[in-house]
Fold these 2 entries.
Entry 1:
Amino acid sequence: MKQLEIACCNLDSIINANKGGASRIELFENLIDGGCTPSYGMMKKAKEISDIPIYVMIRPRGGHFVYSKDELDIMKSDIEICHHLNIDGIVFGILDENSEVNIAACDELLKKWKNKPATFHRAIDLVSNIEKSINMIIDLGFERVLTSGGRATAKEGLHTILDLLIV
């Protein structure tokens, strides 16, 4: 079954995604920096007006994907808010100082999320061995991965993406 997820960062895009036949919404703010966690008010309103599942990005800031303890605490608090608002899924990615998947931090956030649906986002495109990392992400329990195959665009990384489908 084909699924269409629409990235939304404002109310109009949420309304249009619902009208246009989207299967799911990825909700975020701050597109210029690659997306960050939306406000409580935005999440609440999105749940009120949307008939389709909403996945919220859990990312305290733009830039790299190596987070401090304080930033991880913020991410945990944002996950608590998502529970409170009955958000359908979350989207995040955490790397370690070597630009590899930070298994311990990801596992901690997934447990905080109570292993509900989660997507590992484009942080995967910065690792040295994407195939090895995909297997780690699967083992952690993420249901899907958002990737451009390690390239700037999915079109450029299409060969890698197709290879990863076999993993």
Entry 2:
Amino acid sequence: MRLQLALNVDDLDRAVDFYSRMFDTTPVKRRPGYANFAIDEPPLKLVLFEGSGSSGSINHLGVETETSGEVIGAEQRLKASGLATSGIDETECCYAQKTETWVEGPDGTRWEWYVRHGDSEQLANVVVASHDVEATIEGCASGSCC
């Protein structure tokens, strides 16, 4: 797992130049108004959104997992602790196909728990399928998903 930090920026080219030099790496994905870094040291997923809010503000935070089972586990733990979540969704967002769940902090900060399955040409979040968590858990236990 690694933490994700998604920032709003005014000038994507300037931000990409800065973070490329700061972390000594280049984006793994670059699209109009969007850049995505997979940084090894420190383990960080850095995402830049151009023109999506006040420059330098946090767009959202997240935890990138390695498996759908870890997303489901996070969903279960969050709900069991009394936090409201978005549920488990299959989405296309941020130029990726993902399984994800969302939770909002008391200050309105949005947190995403997700696993990336592949690439997409979709920037805006589109829900492809929603899952009943209990049915998903039962399916995973029987080996029919995840």
